[in-house]
Structure prediction request, 196 residues.
Amino acid sequence: MNILIIVLVLAVVVLGYGVSVYNFFVSSKARIKAAVQEIGNQLKRQAELIPNLETSAKGYLKHEKGIFDKLTEARKAVASAIKSNDVQKMSDAGSQLASVIPALQIAVEDNPELKADGVVTKLMDELRDTSDKVMYARRLVIDLTADYNVKRVAFPSSIIANIFKFAEQPGLITPEKGEHVEVSQSDTKTPKVNLE
Prediction:
């Protein structure tokens, strides 16, 4: 009788653990998908702000035509990436767009009339804010994917993953070669701050 009770308790514990792990995988996949959609949502918002900014700033920045060409290219890349629903393309398009914004910001800072324009200032603030939200959504995809993939291969949750065929989530792919993976000697120095 006691052995039967022990076996039943063990069965309930194992079953409870299995349900818990299964629910983790299912909810993680849904959260990863939602985070990817948030990247697309924020990129779309960012791309929609650009035409308004161009309209407001073009008259002031006729000599900075190159920036607007880059913004237009980045905007097209974002629209294409969102349409494809490919997380890596969205991430790359977001990076392309984020790389143009500092140049635009410098052009605005260098032009006092444009800097004083309330519409341009508001649009620049919204672009920066949206860029931060894209970065947050990317970070969320990376974290959720890492948690999911670690649990997928760790024992004993890997048993549940294999039984229900939970596939590895690709997340965001970062090139394994390039400057971003190298630490130069200047990177190891402590930055000096001068507030005078």
